[in-house]
Amino acid sequence: MMAAVPIAHVLTVAAVLFVLGVTGVLIRRNVVFMLMSLEVVLNSAGLAFIAAGQHWGQPDGQVFFILILTLAAAEVSVGLALILQMFRRFGTLDMDAVREMRG
Amino acid sequence: MMPLWLIPSVPLAGFVVLALCGGRLSPRSVAWLGCGTVAMSFVFALAAAAGFGDAGTLRETVFTWFEAGDLAVDVALYLDPLSLWMTLIVTGVGLLVHIYSAAFMEGDEGFSRYFAYLNLFVAAMLLLVLADNLVVLFAGWEAVGLCSYLLIGHWYGNPENGYAARKAFVVTRLGDVALLIALFVLFAAFGTLDIQPVLEAASGNWAPGAGIALLVGTLVLVGAIGKSAQFPLHVWLPDAMAGPTPVSALIHAATMVTAGVYLIARLHPLFELSPTAMLLVAAVGMITLLIAGLSALVQRDIKRILAYSTISQIGYMFVALGVGAWSAAIFHLMTHAFFKALLFLGAGLVIRHMNGEHDITRMGGLRKAMPFTAAVFTIGAASLAALPLVTAGFWSKESILGAAWEQHAMLWAGAAVGALVTAVYAFRLVFLVFAGEVASERKERAGPALKIPVGLLALLSVVGAVFGAPDLGEEHAAHLLPAIGSSALVLAGVALAWWAFGRGVRRPASGVVASALQSGFRIDALYQAAIVRPYSRLSGWNRRDAVDRMVTGVFAGVSLAMHRALSALQTGRVRDYALGMVFGVVVLVGLGVWTWR
């Protein structure tokens, strides 16, 4: 059996991924890249679940990862549909250009 | 014996039906409904009169309106000769006015609204005269004022009519406040507001000439002054001519202005306790009858002449009340209802024929074109002038003059001068409108619905005196000498009118005196300068007072600033919202970690 990767390392990677994803969502203006960054955020959460399941020897972590995977798939399909509509309507993918809800 | 409550509730039901679905009914059924309810009411009143006999009085409690502490107000109706007389006058004359209205108002936009209010008017007046409780009476009193407002402002499209309606409402309201205070005083004194117990308690507990009797009497008098358009609150009545002509007939003859006379007659035991209050009543009546009569002399608007003559004639009734001739006052109220309704309905025919012209100096020679109207109008004017022996007005006015003679020769003299003035202006009206060269040959077109009520009223103006007056327990002997004197004055007045206006001379009066009379002694201008303008200036200031500035300045400013700040957060940029969410999550997680230990 291979030596187990210490959980602290895995969680650090997950945290780095999470921060990268959130930063991507916040600083990217192209909506497609925002969606991809969101995927990174979701997967960092999934990685954390896997690591935790491994650490305690429980299957729950993997169950949750599958859940997150499905959720991400659904989210992407809805998100892509929205992006398509947005492009048709506004002719742009720049999220900052779409601000009709300005108060 | 049929129940009394049917009398006022039938027109009230008519009002409810007309108000709720009058717009969906055809004008024909509206007219039938409007007239039918009043006719039923009249029939019920006649039945009550027939079953009444010599029983004295009849009291009927319908239901208890409310109870609060010591005060229990029953909606109770009371029938005695006085209220029976008033009920018959209100329903009878009201019915004739309704029938006339059905034809006169034909094609009017607000036909069903008009009949709804007319029915409510009659119902309110019946409630007023039948009430056995001062609170119920007051309710009817207020409702009558409301109806006069609604009907004077019937053609509300013209702002002047709305102004006249508001003026009538506000001016009569001054009197209403005094009446309400009188009710408070009576309740404080006796703990009840049922009329008969109050009157008994007052007679039993208050010494003649007591100050409180004077107070209550004066307050009731002020209330009556407002409603009955007596000096100094008479200014609303000439302006009330803005309403449709049949409404004027109803207000002047059957409802509204007679309410004050009825109120004082109803509460006469209170006035008997205070000679000073009686004197006040007589003085108010005397002043009113003279200034209104003199004002009527020079008016040019046919309806304004009649309005001033109403004020003057009610002045006679107040004189009668002031000298304790209660039944003479009601007697004159009745004959006045006949001839004044006749004159107004006749004036309506004239105005209709002249296509809305009100100025009598532009009329003339109408006797050829409208012989029927000329005849009945002359009868009405003769009754108003109290032409001796042949008119109903003579007998009632003579009974007032006789009672005044018994009291004081000066009162008689004033009233007799008033009779002279009355004769002059009544026949000035007749001569200017119907005599003179014939202006137009166009025949009048008036159907039976217009002619029959007018004809009946003309008949009543002649023979109406046979109904006599309700017996209110006072005796007055006939006085031949003053009767001959005042009759001579009346005849002199008619002759004077003929000399001045009947010979084809039609030169409008001019000069300082005439213009003062024309404006009704400038009382309106005085009120305008002394009350209305200062008040509107005061309210102009009040619009911008400290409280308002606080609300519009500080409160509104703060909420506006907060609104701006919050709305600046709504940038519409998704990334800003996301940043907000991340920030929130960081704070929450941070808090959670921080408080873990």
Describe the SSE topology:
The complex is a heterodimer of chains A (103) and B (597).
Chain A: H1 7-27, H2 31-56, H3 60-90
Helix pairs in contact in A: 1-2, 2-3
Chain B: H1 6-21, H2 27-52, E1 58-68, E2 71-79, H3 81-104, H4 111-130, H5 134-152, H6 159-190, H7 195-205, H8 211-228, H9 236-239, H10 245-254, H11 258-266, H12 268-272, H13 275-298, H14 302-322, H15 326-353, H16 366-369, H17 371-385, H18 392-407, H19 409-434, H20 448-463, H21 480-501, H22 512-518, H23 523-542, H24 546-569, H25 574-594
Antiparallel strand pairs in B: 1-2
Polypeptide structure, described:
The complex is a heterodimer of chains A (103) and B (597). Chain A is mostly helical. Chain A is 76% helix and 0% strand. Chain A has a domain at 29-92: Orthogonal Bundle (Helix Hairpins). Chain A is built from 3 helices and no strands. Chain B has a domain at 274-511. Chain B has 25 helices and 2 strands. Chain B is globular and about 115 Å long. The model of chain B has no long low-confidence stretch (mean pLDDT 85). The A-B interface holds A 22, 25-27, 29, 34, 95-96, 98-103 and B 566-575, 578-579, 582.
